[in-house]
Amino acid sequence: MSALRVLTAAAPRLAAVLLGAACVAWTAVPPRHTGLATLALVVSIIAVVAGALRLALADVPQPEEGFFPSAPVRAWLTFLAVLRGLPWEEIAVVALLWLEVQHSARTSWSPWHTAALGFGLVAYLLAVHIAESGAPAGRLLRRQAKLLLAGACLLALGAGFAMLPAAGPGAGSALLRVLAAAAVVAAAALVLPGRD
Amino acid sequence: MAGPVQQVEVRWRPSRHARRLLTLALAGLLLATLTRRPELVGVAAPALLLLGVALPGRPGRPGRPARLAVRVGLASSRLYEGELAAVDLAVDDTRFDTRWLLEAGRGVEPASATAVNGAAARFEFTVPRWGRRQLGSAALVLHDPWRLTEGRAEVALPAVDCYPQPAVERTRVVLSRLPNRLGEHAARAPGEGTEFAGVREYVPGDRQRAINWPASTRLGRLQVNTFAAERSQDIVLVVDATSDVGPPGTSALDLGLRGAAGAARAYLDGRDRVGVICYQWGGARWLAPSLGRRQFYKIIDTMLSADAGWGRGETFSRLPRAALPPGALVVVFSPLLDQRFVETLRDMRERGFGLFVVDVLNTVPPPRRTFSDAMTRRIWRMEQQAIRFALRELGVPVVHWDGAAPLDLPLAPYTRRPLVVHR
Fold it and tell me: What is the mean pLDDT of chain A?
C-alpha cells in the first residue's frame, strides 16, 4: 500500500484525534484546581484518548474465541471489548461541557469561548463519524454546509444573548435569557427545510 | 452483475452519530438551564438543527424500506488452496449511502479491504486449507443523507469448495505389465506404436514402409523395424485419512491429498484411467478408475469427503474389490501410522497388486527430558522404521515426500524405467 493511500485512510482519524485534543486544551486553559474541574479534565482526556484508540484499532479484527485463551489474549480481548463497548465520544462531550461550566468566572469574553468550544465539539463529532464510517468527507460536508452555517449563526446568537445585560438582578431574568435562546434554536430547527 | 438475489431484512435505528449529537444537545440544554448561561443553548443549537431535519415527515428524507434486494455473485464455487477469489455484492436501492462490512468465516482469509463504501462491493479472499468453507457474512449498513439513521442487514455469503493444491508431478511410474488397452505408455509387447523396439526378418504381410534398408543390405535378407505397443494403465490412488498428524496446512492428510491430486492430474494427462480410495475410520470412500478431465474433479470431490466421517470404532480391513481393477498400480499416500492400514497394504500386495507408497509423515513426537519419554520416542522411531522395512521386504517401494519439493524428486528412481511387480 502506498504512503498516499495510508495517509488518505488515516487522515480522518488523525483529524478526529486532533480536534478532540484541541477541544480538551481549549477547555482546560487556564487550569482550575478544584476537585470537580480536575475530575472533568481527567475524564475528558481519558475519553478522547480512548476514542482515538478505538478509531486507530477499528480495523483490527476481533480474535476468534478459542478454548482456554492465555492471559495476554484474555487481556487483549477485554481491552478491545471496553474500547469498543463504551460511548467515549459522548463521555468526552459531557465532561468537556462540564469543565467549561467550571470556568464560569473566566473573563468577559467567556460566551465566545463557549461558542468556539461548541463549534469545536460539533466538528469533533463530525470528524469521528467520518473516520469510523469511511464516508466521503467532502460530499458529507457539502450536504450539511447550510445547516452547519445556520448552526454557527445560532451559536453566535447564543453567545450574543449571554452578553446582553440582564433585565433585572434576579435569577429569573437569567433564566429568561436561556429560554429565549432555546426558543430561537427550536424555531430555527422546526422552520429550516430538510433539503440540502 | 450476475448472481442470485437475496431478500434481506433491514433493521433501522438511530446512528451513533445521532446519539452523539443528541448527547451534545441535551447536555448543552441541561447545563444552560442549571447554570442559566444562554451560550450553552448556542452549543446545543447545531446538534438540534441536524437532529431536527431528521424528524419524520421532513422533505428530502427517503423512506425506510423493511426489505432490500441484494445480489451476491461468486466468481467460482470451486478454488484451490491459496487461490485468490472474489465475491461481488450489490444493492439495487441507491437512495442511501451504503457501506459493506465483510465478516469472514472460519478458514477464510480476506485479501482486500473488509469495509467498502458504495452500492456495489467486491471482497477478495483466499482459503489457505482445503475443505468446504462458509465464506461468512456481509453486513450492509445504510445511512440516510444526514447520517442520523442507519439500517443494518445481514447477507449470508455462499460456501466454496476449496480443493487441495495439486503437487507438481510431471513424470509417471509405469508398470512393466500393462493391460491390453490403447494408451500412451510404451509396453514391452510389440505393436503399432512410435517407439522403436527392434529389428526382425521380413515375413509376408509386413508393411513395406517398415523395411529397415541398412539392416537388410548388411544381412542380405529383408529386415523390418518393430515398434513397442502403446498401452494405458489403471491407477488407483489410496489416501490414508486415518491419521492427520502435523501442523494444519502441512499435516499428513494435507500432503496426502495434495500428492494424490498431483498424481491424478499427471496420470490423467497421460490418458491413464485413475481412481481413488479414501481410507478412513469406519470405511472407505472410493471412485472406480476412469478417464478424462471430469474424472479429476470427481476424484477431488471424493477426497474432500475425507474432511468428515471420523466414525471411530468400526472395523475395516479390506479395500473394496470393485475399486481395484486387476493389474492396477496402487499409489498410496500415507503416514503409515495406523497398523490396520499397513495390514491392508500387505493384503493388497499379497493379492498381486503393484504397490507404491509415498510416505507423508513429516512430524515426530516432541522431545522431552524424562528418560521414559526419550525411550518411548526411540521405540516409536524404531517401530516406524520396522514398518517401512517390512513393506520394502514385501517388494513395496516406500519413498518419503516432504510436501515442499515436487513429487517427481522422490519418484525419480522409479520413473526412469518400468516398475516390475513380482507376484
Answer: 81
pLDDT of amino acid B59: 57
Q: Hey, what's the cell of B347?
A: 493384503
Please give the single-letter amino acid code of residue B91.
V
Distance CA B65, CA B151 (A): 9
Query: Which of A132-136, B216-220, B264-268, B402-406 has the lowest average pLDDT?
Result: A132-136
CA-to-CA separations, B314 to B121, B240, B283, B423, in angstroms, rounded: 49, 16, 8, 31
Q: What is the pLDDT of residue A47?
A: 95
Whole-number Å distance between alpha carbons of B219 and B108: 72
Strands annotated E in chain A = none
- Contact flag A118-B43 (C-beta cutoff 8 Å): yes
Whether the CB-CB separation of B230 and B184 falls below 8 Å is answered with yes
The gap from C-alpha A146 to its chain's centroid, in whole angstroms, comes to 20
Exposed/middle/buried for A127, CB within 10 Å: 0-12, 13-18, 19+? buried
Nearest to A94 among B23, B35, B42 (CB): B23
- Low-confidence stretches of chain A (pLDDT < 70) are 1-2, 64-67, 104-109, 164-176, 189-196
Contact B33 A175 (CB under 8 A): yes
Whether residues B44 and A185 touch (CB distance < 8 A) is answered with yes
Query: In B, which residues are within 8 Å of A125 by CB distance?
Result: 17, 20-21, 24, 47
Contact list, B33 vs chain A (CB under 8 Å): 175, 178
Inter-chain residue contact B53 with A114, CB threshold 8 Å: no
pTM for the model: 0.73
Which residues in chain B are contacts of A158 at CB distance < 8 A? 38-43, 45
User: Do B241 and B306 touch, CB atoms closer than 8 A?
Assistant: yes
- ipTM of this complex > 0.90? no
Distance CA B300, CA B263 (A): 11
Sheet with B78-80: strands ordered across: B78-80, B159-163, B131-134
Chain B residues with CB under 8 Å of A174 CB are 36
Q: Is B103 exposed, middle or buried (0-12, 13-18, 19+ CB in 10 A)?
A: middle
C-alpha cell at A28: 482546560
- Return d(Cα A13, Cα A8) in angstroms, integer: 10
Grade residue B309 by pLDDT with cuts at 50, 70 and 90. very low
- Outline where DSSP puts E strands in B33-171: 67-74, 78-80, 85-91, 97-104, 109-110, 115-117, 120-126, 131-134, 136-143, 149-156, 159-163
pLDDT digits (tens, 9 = 90+) for B38-96: 888 888 888 888 888 776 656 556 678 888 889 999 888 889 998 999 999 999 877 88
Mean pLDDT, rounded, of chain B? 85
